[in-house]
Amino acid sequence: MVKRIALLGPPNVGKSALFFALTGRYVKTANYPGTTLEINVGRIKWTDVEIVDLPGVFNPRNPRDEDEKLALDAVLKDSYDAVIVVGAPHALREALELAEIVSKHKPVAFVLNMSDIGKPEVDAKTLAAEMGIPVFYTSAVKRTGIAELVEFLKKWDPKGPTPVRPVEIPLRPTARVAGAIFSRPWAAALALFAISTATVFLLMAALEGVLPWGGQVPGLLPVLECYLDAVPELISSAGLSPLLTSFLVDGLWTGISALVGFLPYVLAALAIVVFYEETGIIGALTRAIESKLVALGVPGRGLLCLAVGGTCNVPALSITKVMWGRSNRLLTALLVPYVPCAARLSLFVAIATAALAERPYLVPFAAFIPYAVSALIILAASAIYSRALRARPRVEGLPPTPLMLPNWNIYAIKIWYYFKDFFKKAGLLIALLPSVLWPLTAFGPGGLAASPANSWMAIAGERLGAVLAPLGIPWQISASLIAGYIFKEVVWGFMEALGATALLPSLSLPSVLALLVFLAVYSACIATASSLVKLVGWRITLASLAIQLALGLAAAYVVYYAALII
Question: How confident is the model at residue 556, as a pLDDT?
């Protein structure tokens, strides 16, 4: 018979590290019934002990976040055989308070994790006698105390509630709990900006082969693209019918190659962000400026996710799951698509260079404007989502996060687990959606379209042309942007097919700026939308896409008329 044990504790006490130390890679993800909240479920190897890792609870007597409420509700009402409450030296009071509440309803054991940075002055057996429940000292990162805990869990036969006796636990600090290192907001802000910028530059250099100063180094994606681009040529030379060739190249292979291209981004972003989380760097930095970011409408830890979105929105969405709190996680996920990705940057540069060929000194300015406007739109979008979804960003107010090196085995397991989870949930959608949308680009009123200019997609784009026409943007350019709902990488190809590139030099500067701003904001690609669906559901995703389009249009009109006045 399976013994189900819940793992519960405040955030940032190494609970997930303890979970993976106990279960290894024998983990699956489940949704809490009736919600999009994910919980990790694993089994200790060669045992019938199932461990369920529940969200962190920091305010046990007055839970503020939906995650806290659901975690407490699950522990008190679901059929768990027992509960392990996990604490740490920097969150001991909250963990003890949580143990007192839960122990009135369930059998409880108490685990003081991170005991290597602060150990009680009494041993675990003495403290267990004082509290009236089993007590263990562990360090999941160093794997100390894990074997003893596993042996206990194998033999534990919990029978009923075990009320905890309140105690005071004096600690002997053996390492500094680093929360004050960056306690000054200006220092924390500079350090966080530097880390976010370095993360973007590292991803661009490793994957795209592009250095911050414009130099080139060997990158993974350019090498990968050489092989990916060879497949359409092989298919085209296979002697298949034009219809089948079009489906295989423009539908099926477009989706598969896009997924293959996204996976290195996702893996690299996860490796970097999980490292930041495991070492406690982001928690230590965001704590000092959290209230100021929240006042602007941006969750504290969401800033790093938005920075990663500057390379690609898909991995940025995949790392939002490491954030604590439903409101912060939901809001960050909805804001990520507003961040211009690397594909949009390449379009900014290409369009600005072509449109401003006679005034090349304006190209850097034109490419910068979409980013500045996007930052303002992110704040506006945050206000809209916060009010509409009642998901206001919260100041976490969590305890100072210790700085430490991760356990590399647990670190690797976490990366693989998150990567596998992304592939299972969003990978199939990303790969198949281009095939579903293929008829829109392959067919038109006359049947099989000879070029994208004769397709239903182009005709739909003409409707958008009527909306952008007052901005001095020809319909051929507007129609090309419809392809951006598939992937931004195909927009330039549509512009060439519709003859839009030849029209760019005829645009006025206000029209160019309006076009770039609209391009920066108006839509998420299907890969981003697919990932968003898995995080927030279809209804909220569709509403968000509509809001994004409306804000993109509004911003384009504001920039256009402002440029006319200036």
Answer: 95
Which two three-digit tokens encode residue 504?
């760019």
> What single-letter DSSP state applies at residue 239?
T
Is the pLDDT assigned to residue 458 strictly greater than 90? Answer: no
Characterize 527-560 residue by residue with b for buried, 16 or more Cβ atoms within 10 angstroms of its Cβ, and e for exposed: bbbbbbbbbbeeebbeebbebbbebbbebbbebb
> Left (φ > 0), alpha (ψ -120 to 50) or beta: where does 132 sit?
left
Structure tokens at 242: 């034009």
pTM of the model: 0.72
137-175 pLDDT per residue, tens: 998 888 889 999 999 998 888 888 888 888 888 776 554
Give the pair of three-digit tokens for residue 187. Answer: 């220092």
Q: Which of 79-88, 215-224, 347-356 has the lowest mean pLDDT?
A: 215-224
Return d(Cα 330, Cα 332) in angstroms, integer.
6
- Contact predicate 515/503, CB 8 Å: no
Q: Which residue has the tokens 């004082």?
A: 130
Q: Which residue has the tokens 């740490």?
A: 88
Task: Provide the pLDDT confidence category of residue 341 given band limits of 50, 70 and 90.
Answer: confident
> CA 352, 356, 361 angle in degrees (round to 5)?
95
Concatenated DSSP letters for 520-560? Answer: HHS---HHHHHHHHHHH-HHHHHHHHHHHHHHHHHHHHHHH
Contacts of 77 (CB under 8 A, 6+ apart): none
Spatial neighbors of 565 by CB under 8 A, at least 6 apart, are none
**What pLDDT was estimated at residue 460?**
76
Report which of 169, 165, 150, 164 is spatially closest to residue 91, judged by C-alpha positions. Answer: 169
Task: Report the residue count for the chain.
Answer: 566
Reduce the DSSP state of residue 56 to 3 states and report it: coil
Going by pLDDT thresholds of 50, 70 and 90, the confidence category of residue 181 is very low
User: How far is the CA of 79 from the CAs of 6, 104, 324, in angstroms?
Assistant: 10, 15, 25
Taking CB atoms within 8 Å and a gap of at least 24, the contacts of 145-151 are 145/115, 146/18, 146/21, 146/22, 149/22, 149/111, 150/22, 150/44, 150/47
Q: How many CA atoms lie within 13 A of 507 on its CB side?
A: 32
Token pair for residue 254?
A: 């477009």
Please answer whether residues 85 and 111 qualify as being in contact, where contact means their C-beta atoms are separated by less than 8 angstroms.
yes
Residue among 101, 95, 172 at smallest CA distance from 135: 95
**87 neighbors 114 (Cβ within 8 angstroms):** no
Q: In this structure, are residues 108 and 82 in contact, taking their beta carbons and an 8 Å threshold? A: yes
pLDDT exceeds 90 at position 544: yes
Report CA dihedral (149, 150, 152, 155) to the nearest 10 degrees.
Answer: 170
Helix boundaries (H) for 301-392: 302-308, 313-318, 326-335, 342-355, 363-389
Beta carbons within 8 Å of 557's beta carbon, 6+ residues apart: 470, 471, 514
Identify which of 255, 256, 307, 336 has the alpha carbon closest to the alpha carbon of residue 535: 336
Q: Are 315 and 221 in contact (CB under 8 A)?
A: no
Which range (324-338, 410-424, 536-550) has the least confidence? 410-424
List of residues 6+ apart from 141 with CB closer than 8 A? 14, 17, 114, 116, 404, 405, 406, 407, 410
